[in-house]
Amino acid sequence: MARIILLLLSFLVGITFPGQRGLWIVRNSLSTGQDLKFLQMVNQNIGLTDIYFQVRALGKNIIAREKDGQQLSLNEILQFCRQNNIRFHAWINAFYIWTLDEVPKDSGHSILWDKDHLMTDASENIQKPAELKKIGIEGYFVDPEANVNMQQLKQLIKELVLHYGVQGIHLDYFRYPSFPVHYSRFLRAKFLHSYFLDPARMQVKQAEYFAVFSNNGARLMSARYQLFLQNELTERLNNLTNFTKNLADSIQVSVAVKPNIGKARRLYAQDWPKWLADDACDYIVMMNYTPDQTEFKKNLNVAKSIKQDARIVVGIGAYYLDRAQIGNRIREVEQMGFNGYCLFSFTTLKTNPDLVLKSSVNSFSGNYWKR
After folding, report:
1. What is the pLDDT of residue 127?
2. 195-204, 267-276, 304-313, 352-361: which range is least confident on average?
3. End-to-end C-alpha distance for the chain, whole angstroms
4. Which of 151, 171, 236, 251 is most buried when burial is the number of CB atoms within 10 A of its CB?
5. How far is it, in rounded angstroms, from Cα 160 to Cα 125?
6. What are the phi and psi torsion angles at 100 (to 5°)?
7. pLDDT surpasses 90 at 15
């Protein structure tokens, strides 16, 4: 009833209640008092409602628990958010754990303990990041059941919720690397136990399996492995969401996802329409970063078709665009009824402040930054 009254009042007085106006912030881009002053200027021009601040990357927690010289502490950033009525989401890179050929020196790093969970292609060879990057993969990933990595994620979430009082947990790289790096020793063994087939061998020896099972049978088993990957990821998301909600039910759990639903499912096993339908998380942030306006709109139209507008925040890649283009995309997101937008990223705004500051001569009609 209260919500209905608010909506009626907003209609009568001509006030809108827009969704999120969010910003992703890479940890090292907000590290000094000067950076915080710039964030305040951004807030004055955009009217931020949410920030997604990076606290874990490359398998390591990157929280500044205490002030160290010019380095801002996490508490100082949280205080800024509280003073400005901005929701703070702790941005956690989940399964992408390392990017260099040389392994980390930290003896507790997941890569040293979760070796059976490292993702590989069907050849079983653990390719080094330099080789992976040649095929468009960022570096080392672990599968969703990597024990040490998962323990570290949960310990971090517990600290963030109980000690720091964050409002949200934001999971990034909550996916597999792109095909063909869809295998780990653990995943292969688990699938073999259930279906009596090694999915990696099936990929390498396609002709042999097609001869034994027929074309339809082999394709069916390949599709079954794809569904298996999706289910593994979904089960882990449910587990982390329940873990977080048991700490504090008010915490919002969000996931950064690939924007094209078909590719998200097929290449990364992110069945995010199912996640929303089954309440596996509170909402998703679709990383609709493409510079191509036609593709951007197509992704929005497909997302609109799943009828979960209130639980979809649209990520916009500011680094591709000028101020007018950003404004046009924000306008589209709002007109289509999604739950707001999130800009990637604060680093881009620091490099090109004219994208957000009101003094910019390259403005656009309609104040879609702040109402």
Report:
1. 87
2. 352-361
3. 25
4. 171
5. 37
6. -110, 155
7. no
| R_g (Cα) of the chain, nearest Å | 22
Whole-prediction pTM value? Answer: 0.90
Q: What angle do CA 242, 245, 248 make, to 5 degrees?
A: 160
Q: Is the distance from CB of 349 to CB of 318 less than 8 angstroms?
A: yes
If one compares 129 and 365, the residue with the highest pLDDT of the two is: 129
Q: Pick the closest to residue 39 from 353, 363, 370 (CA basis).
A: 353
Does an H or E element contain 54, and which?
Answer: strand 50-57
Distance of alpha carbon 13 from the chain centroid? 37
Nearest to 64 by CA among 55, 73, 56, 52: 73
DSSP line for 90-156: EEEE-SEEE-SSSPPS-TT-HHHH-GGGB-B-TT-----HHHHHHTT--SEEB-TT-HHHHHHHHHH
Place of tokens 């509170």: 282
Task: For 49-103, write each residue's pLDDT tens digit.
Answer: 999 999 999 999 998 887 677 789 999 999 999 999 999 999 999 999 999 999 9
Name the one residue in this structure whose structure tokens are 């951007």.
Answer: 296
Instruction: Give the lowest-confidence range in 62-76, 113-127, 233-247, 299-313.
Output: 62-76
Q: CA-CA distance, 313 to 267, in Å (whole number)?
A: 22
Cis before residue 73, ω within 30 degrees of 0? Answer: no
Instruction: Name which of 335, 340, 274 is nearest 52 in CA terms.
Output: 340
Q: Is 51 helix (H, G, I), strand (E, B) or coil?
A: strand
> What is the architecture, at CATH level 2, of domain 15-355?
Alpha-Beta Barrel (3.20)
Question: Residue range 140-163: average pLDDT?
Answer: 98
Mean of the pLDDT values across residues 305-316? Answer: 97
Instruction: Determine which helix (DSSP H) or strand (DSSP E) holds 298, and give its type and residue range.
Output: helix 293-304
Token digits of residue 239: 């587990």
Look up tokens 């468009």; give the residue.
136
Boundaries of every domain in the chain: 15-355
**336 touches 300 (CB < 8 A):** yes
CA distance 247 to 252: 12
